[in-house]
Structures are given as structure tokens and as C-alpha cells.
């Protein structure tokens, strides 16, 4: 089958990249050779899928030059590259569409921030859809094949991730049946904090009677000092790559997470996930999969500590 390169700009948050995996797999299954561009961590996160991933440079000039280079490479591999839609921009930013236009790419994406004229094909965005379905619809438009979005996401891990996770478990003395807590959350939802305020009490008071080791993996920008201060009873793994983190999540008895990237990762590797939500609308941003349960208060408020603990006891591999 002849090569059909497709350049895809990923979004900038871990959860969004995970929600885009069904689209990427669908495009690969349709015969596209994917060239992904994203944050530096995206290569490790997606290594199990075998997709080519380049790290985005810092400036518009550098990113445009990168896209131009990839365009020339793709044109050499596929004589028809310039005559079709040859790029997908998953971010909604004006700059992501501008860079593709400046590089001479014919991109598909959503209308946003007045950028529709920069795209070869610009779709209207349905604000009430789940974000995974929003990405999926780009694939339906590109392939001209409408299809229902899947009910789960599959994040594959690579052999090196298995080995790294095994080493970490030995170093931390992490016993089988451990729990993982993900109390951090980047950004806000409609200007409201996405971090459940009772997480420190959950870890300090509610989880110890369960007799389980509790693991926390603070990521970049999630200060280790805060983790040690508020979650001192946990096993703390610093600087864990996302691939190894996915394996640690997969093998946990239960993952308890805010609306955050590791929560979406946990769902995508089939881990039992208790997703603790406040202002976040699960119909638009909730983790997806058969192993996901939600704890949420009334009218978008936070659930109580007792409610979360009760749901934790009832979910996962807790017997």
C-alpha cells in the first residue's frame, strides 16, 4: 500500500492527548502514516503505539520551519500529498492553524478564534459533545465515513515501560494491591479549581485503615515539596515517565484522581478509576471506559470525604 503521510498536531495537555488516541488509531487503520507533533512527554506516552512523534519547538518561526521540513519529506514519499488534506490540527488555537498555513499544509480542524480561513477544511464545533467525540468527528470528516465514537480508549504500553515500572516498584517497596492517588490538576474548569480539597484528609485519615500502600507521582510543576508536606504517608515517585506511570496505574488496585491527565491515562489502560469531580462536566470531559466510576457532589459541587471513601471501598480490586 503506498505511503499516505498525515501530519497531526497534538494538544498540549496529557488528558487531551489520551482522548485523541481513538482518532489517531482510526486514521492509522485507514492507511495513514502518522507524523505527530506535540509536547516532549508525548513521545513516551504514545511509545507503545509506534507512532512517530516530534517535539514542538518554542517559537512560531521554529514550528513553521519544522512543519515545512515535514511537508517536504511527506511530499517526497507521496506524490499526491499536496493534492489532498494532509494535516490535522487538534488544538483550537489561531497559531496552530497559522503555522500550518505558513508551512503550505492543507489542514483540517475546527473553526475557532477566527481561524477558519487558514484551514483547508474548517468544521463547526459542537460544544455539548464529549471532547473525545469532538476529535473523533474530525476523522469522520477527513475519511468521509461517519461512525459512532467508541466507548473506551486503549493506551498501549511499550516493553521499556514495563521494565521501568518494575524497577520503580522494587525501589519503592510497593506491594501488590497498592492504591494510586492523583490529587493534582493542571488548569481550571470555567475558572474554577479542579482539585478536590479533601485529598490530603483522604490520604492522611481515610486510606491508612485499608492497609494498602499508597503511591503518588508528582509531575512537572507539581512540587515534590507539596507532595511530601500534604501526602507524607505515601510512596512518592519523582520524575516518572508517562509510559512507566501508565503501567503503575494499570496494575493498581484502585486509582483515585481529580480531573487530570493521569486519570484519563488510568481509564485508558483499564485501571479501576474513581474520578473525583466538582465543576468539571463529565459529559464533556470525564474519563471514558468500563472501569471508570465518578464521585461528584450535587449541582457541580464537590463530594464529601465519606462519599468518596465509600465509593473507593466498593470499586476496584479491593477484596
Helix-strand layout with pairing:
Layout: E1 5-9, H1 14-19, H2 21-29, E2 33-38, H3 42-45, E3 52-55, H4 60-77, E4 87-89, H5 94-102, E5 107-110, E6 121-123, H6 131-143, H7 159-172, E7 179-182, E8 188-189, E9 192-193, H8 199-206, E10 214-216, H9 224-230, E11 235-236, H10 242-250, E12 254-257, H11 261-268, E13 273-277, H12 282-285, E14 292-296, H13 305-314
Properties at a glance:
alpha/beta, 13 helices, 6-stranded parallel sheet, 2 domains, 319 residues, Rossmann fold
What does it look like?
- The protein has 319 residues and is an alpha/beta fold.
- It folds into 2 domains: 5-143, Rossmann fold; 159-314, Rossmann fold, CATH 3.40.50.
- Helix content is 37%, strand content 16%.
- The chain is built from 13 helices and 14 strands.
- The strands form 3 sheets. A 6-stranded parallel sheet has the order 3-2-1-4-5-6, sandwiched between helices. A 6-stranded parallel sheet has the order 11-10-7-12-13-14, sandwiched between helices. Strands 8-9 form a two-stranded antiparallel ribbon.
- Strand 4, helix 5 (94-102) and strand 5 (107-110) form a beta-alpha-beta unit.
- It is elongated and about 65 Å long.
- The N and C termini lie far apart (50 Å).
- The model has no long low-confidence stretch (mean pLDDT 92).
Amino acid at each position: 500500500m503506498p505511503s499516505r503521510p498525515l501530519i497531526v498536531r497534538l494538544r498540549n495537555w496529557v488528558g487531551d492527548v489520551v482522548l485523541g488516541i481513538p482518532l489517531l488509531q482510526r486514521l492509522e487503520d485507514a492507511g495513514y502514516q502518522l507524523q505527530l507533533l506535540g509536547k516532549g512527554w508525548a513521545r513516551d506516552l504514545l511509545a507503545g503505539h509506534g507512532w512517530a512523534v516530534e517535539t514542538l519547538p518554542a517559537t512560531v518561526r521554529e514550528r513553521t520551519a519544522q512543519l515545512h521540513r515535514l511537508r517536504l519529506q511527506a511530499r517526497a514519499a507521496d506524490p499526491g500529498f499536496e493534492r489532498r488534506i494532509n494535516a490535522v490540527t487538534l488544538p483550537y488555537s489561531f497559531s496552530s492553524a497559522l503555522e500550518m498555513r505558513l508551512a503550505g499544509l492543507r489542514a483540517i480542524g475546527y473553526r475557532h478564534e477566527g481561524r477558519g480561513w487558514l484551514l483547508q477544511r474548517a468544521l463547526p464545533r459542537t460544544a455539548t459533545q464529549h471532547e473525545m467525540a469532538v476529535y473523533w468527528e474530525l476523522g469522520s470528516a477527513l475519511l468521509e465515513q461517519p461512525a459512532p465514537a467508541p466507548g473506551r480508549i486503549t493506551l498501549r504500553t511499550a516493553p521499556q515501560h514495563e521494565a521501568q515500572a518494575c524497577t520503580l516498584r522494587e525501589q519503592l517497596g510497593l506491594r501488590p494491591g497498592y492504591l494510586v492517588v492523583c490529587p493534582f490538576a493542571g488548569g481550571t474548569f470555567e475558572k474554577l479549581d479542579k482539585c478536590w480539597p479533601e485529598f490530603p484528609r483522604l490520604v492522611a485519615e481515610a486510606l491508612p485503615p485499608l492497609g494498602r500502600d499508597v503511591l503518588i507521582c508528582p509531575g512537572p510543576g507539581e512540587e515534590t515539596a507539596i507532595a511530601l508536606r500534604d501526602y507524607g504517608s505515601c510512596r512518592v515517585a519523582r520524575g516518572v515517565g508517562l509510559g512507566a506511570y501508565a503501567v503503575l496505574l494499570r496494575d493498581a488496585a484502585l486509582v483515585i484522581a481529580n480531573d487530570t491527565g493521569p486519570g484519563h491515562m488510568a481509564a485508558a489502560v483499564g485501571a479501576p478509576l474513581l474520578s473525583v469531580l466538582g465543576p468539571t462536566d463529565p459529559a464533556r470531559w470525564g474519563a471514558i471506559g468500563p472501569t471508570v466510576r465518578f464521585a461528584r457532589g450535587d449541582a457541580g459541587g464537590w463530594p464529601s470525604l465519606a462519599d468518596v471513601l465509600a465509593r473507593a471501598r466498593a470499586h476496584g480490586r479491593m477484596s
